[in-house]
Design goal:
- With 465 residues, the chain is of the alpha+beta class.
- The chain has three domains: 6-79, Nuclear Transport Factor 2, Chain: A (Roll); 95-156, Nuclear Transport Factor 2, Chain: A, CATH 3.10.450; 160-461, Roll (Elastase, domain 1), CATH 3.10.170.10.
- It contains nine helices and 19 strands.
- It has helices spanning 95-105, 172-176, 238-258, 303-318, 326-345, 392-410, 412-423, 432-447, 449-461; strands spanning 6-8, 32-40, 44-53, 56-68, 74-79, 109-110, 115-121, 124-135, 138-145, 151-156, 160-167, 197-205, 216-218, 230-231, 269-272, 281-284, 289-292, 358-359, 376-377.
- A hairpin with a 3-residue loop joins strand 2 (32-40) and strand 3 (44-53).
- The longest helix has 21 residues, at 238-258.
- The two termini are 56 Å apart.
- Bound molecules: zinc ion.
- Zinc ion is lined by residues 308, 312, 333, 336.
């Protein structure tokens, strides 16, 4: 919507009565005003009015007076819209129908009852219902035509901005190709200088100073703030892990969206990098939050650990209560490792020093002695059922190897699209065979039988089907 703002000299073009209603007749097509608020600054009084048409607010139309308390001089800011097309002021499309149509479509809940508004678009005014819907990504404002029920306009009321941060991507062992790095009690040193990268932090929510955005939400104790949206810390500072987690989670979600998925954990993922001193991290489905431990190398200093945990959040979002059987649990761990592999492959290359199939190269320096240091690998040779240990992480390596092979054969984009699509069809307590078959079915529907045959062969090679 375009709005014309006219600032009229020092003499009020329109006398405004104290009640907030125009005292003299407004020019045709402008109708009335209602008082919104009066504010007092050091120098004067500022009064804001909402433009109305037959008592109904005109969306985006306003009128303001600024009176200098000393001189009595008044300036007017006239942002009223010309109401053309003589809009009807009686709705023929019911309020309740407008409310349920919008909240249903957006999978959200009503903020308050819809109210009538005049929407002026391309010179023509229409009566609409203003519907505010609370969604996982914040409030969405929709205007539904009160005559036809069609959506006139729709926009998120949350504004996102970019910021700047310093991160590891994916981690210093990979970036520096150095398997001899050690945590050194979380100390920063010149050894790490070339591992730091300055990046753009996207999707930050405007109007706040915290690391909160459309896809990631920092709930760490004493979370860092910046009014300039600059989050530059080194690894010895608590803000570093918070920035790293915000960045890597947001990037993972942006990648998912780039594949066409708009509803795979597409909300602000809560995460915490403080308060848990074990050398471990976890996703808690009951609170939908990820907690990163600080034992050994801080887990949120290694993007591959962040992506693994985010993998759990993805599956929990796709399938209610996912992971209720041993095999589903193993699929969860295997997918998390594979997901870390896939995300890492976009920012680092496969080298002899740090093979891409090695997950958590930096995190693992604290608890492994041989090199390359890996939490786990996704290119193991285990098969089902002979190598099953009834431990979800160990058994997950059979699953991650199948996904890794699919990725190698079909490429990252096709593989990840198939895998994410298939997961929507998993049951909470799925088993390897059912999940493998769901993945083959997704491949068939998305890309056809040749691609599906490749996917099937990779699962057969692991003994799942
Ligand atoms: Zn896990």
């Amino acid at each position: 919507m375009k709005r014309q703002l006219t600032v009229i000299g020092t003499v009020a073009a329109l006398a405004v009565a104290g009640s907030g209603v125009a005292a003299t007749a407004a020019p045709a097509g402008l109708d009335g005003l209602s008082l919104v608020k009066t504010k007092h600054s050091l120098l004067g009084t500022h009064t804001w009015y909402q433009q109305t048409w037959h008592g109904i607010p005109v969306l985006g139309g306003y009128y303001a007076t600024h009176t200098n308390d000393k001189t009595g001089e008044t300036t007017v800011a006239d942002g009223r819209l010309t109401v053309t097309g003589s809009p009807s002021v009686t709705a023929t499309f019911a309020r309740g129908k407008a409310e349920s149509a919008v909240t249903g479509r957006l999978s959200g809940s009503l903020v308050r009852n819809a109210s009538p508004v005049i929407e002026v678009e391309n010179g023509t005014a229409k009566l609409g219902w203003l519907v505010l819907t609370q969604t996982a990504k914040g409030t969405v404002q929709s205007v539904v035509d009160a005559k036809t029920g069609s959506t006139l306009t729709e926009e998120s009321t949350v504004k996102n901005v970019d910021g700047t941060g310093v991160v590891f991507d994916p981690n210093p062992v990979v970036t520096l190709q150095n398997e001899s790095l050690t945590d050194s009690s979380n100390a920063n040193s010149s050894t790490f200088t070339n591992a730091y990268k300055t990046v753009t932090l996207t999707q930050l929510t405007s109007g706040v100073t915290t690391l909160r955005g459309a896809y990631a939400y920092n709930t760490s104790t004493s979370g860092v703030t910046s009014s300039t949206r600059t989050y530059s810390y080194n690894r010895s500072q608590a803000g570093f892990e918070q920035t790293e987690a915000y960045y890597q989670i947001t990037k993972a979600q942006e990648y998912i969206q780039s594949l066409g998925f708009t509803d795979v954990n597409a909300s602000a993922q809560k995460f915490k990098t403080t308060g848990y001193t074990d050398d471990n991290s976890y996703y808690d489905p009951s609170t939908d939050a990820i907690t990163f431990g600080t034992g050994g190398v801080d887990d949120a200093e290694d993007a591959e650990i962040i992506w693994h945990e985010y993998g759990h959040a993805i599956q929990d979002d796709q399938v209610a209560g996912f992971g209720s059987s041993d095999e589903a649990g193993a699929i969860g761990e295997g997918f998390g490792d594979y997901w870390a592999y896939s995300l890492s492959s976009a920012v680092s290359s496969n080298t002899t020093v740090t093979p891409l199939a090695c997950i958590g190269d930096w995190d693992a320096v604290s608890y492994t002695s041989s090199t390359p240091h890996c939490l786990r690998r996704v290119d193991g040779t285990k098969t089902y059922p002979s190598d099953v240990e009834d431990e979800v992480h160990a058994d997950g390596e059979i699953w991650s190897r199948a996904l890794y092979d699919i990725n190698t054969a079909l490429g990252r984009t096709v593989a990840d699209t198939i895998i994410l699509e298939a997961q929507f069809n998993y049951t909470a307590g799925t088993n390897f065979a059912a999940a493998a078959n769901a993945t083959v079915a997704a491949a068939t529907s998305l890309y056809g039988s040749t691609t599906a045959a490749t996917v099937k062969a990779k699962f057969q090679a692991r003994g799942f089907i």
